[in-house]
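TICKET #2291
ISSUE: user wants both folds in one file
ATTACHMENT 1:
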Amino acid sequence: MVDRPGLITPEIAERYGVSTHTVRNTWVPHPAWPAPAGKRGRYKEYDAQAVADFVRRYIERQAVELEPRRLYTAQQLEDAGIGIKAGTIRADLTRGRWPEPDDTEHGVNRWYGQTAMTAMTGRRSYRRGADS
């Protein structure tokens, strides 16, 4: 029998480009996080494939295709499933981390789908699963 490769918290953090704090305090407490497969030193060890499956399902942002020339409000972008909340878009806009709206008719900020998709390519990959 071949042992499956296991990962400990620092290795998981390095592999997925996050801090050990994120792994320990955000990922591990998640109800869908895999059970430990053993221990290595002072760390619990997790099956590498089970961790990859968790990250793919609950962390990685899913690509969403928006209509490039359609205008979307922040709420419509959230509803389209781009992976961030309308409130985050509005907050990031005030902090200069989201592009200026393409249209502000009647005081409503709206972005072309292409603008939103371009903005999303530069963001960190994470998403909350529907059952998280």
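ATTACHMENT 2:
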Amino acid sequence: MGKKSKAEKKAKALKKKHHDIVADAPDLASVLVQAARSMRTVLSRNLLESGLYAGQDGVMLALAENDGLTAGMLAAKLGVKAPTMTRTIGRMEAQGFVERRADDDDARLTKVYLTATGRDRLQLIAEAGRASEEMATRGLTEKQMKTLMKLLRAVDANLQGTGLEE
């Protein structure tokens, strides 16, 4: 049990170097993903009293902005797969938040509309969003908030390939 071979020393040095590179690398992706997950968890918790589940708030807000969208349009707008949206709409319909109706111009199309019950939940969604945002930004100044928003929009634009021009 004496000396380590040259190969063992080299392997250990390479392992240490790799570890140092990984430890020092800025890990933007994991920080962004974790922050988004935490925000979603808090928002979901804040939405519970309104009877909504994760993701349903986005459907409600999209329909509040433009009522009468197809499931495919909603899926594209919210960045989810069509089967996921179809299940979400079915659940929301059973809860009384939305209804499906045949399109007036093209009966082959089914469009989704907010019900009166759904519209009544919009204020609760807004309040849950504000409470979540206040929690997320606690301790940040107004200037820091504006900078954060600007930077996140730039990152998003870069990732979507649209890039923001300064």
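RESOLUTION: both attachments delivered.
EXTRA DETAIL ON ATTACHMENT 2: The chain is about 65% helix and 5% strand.
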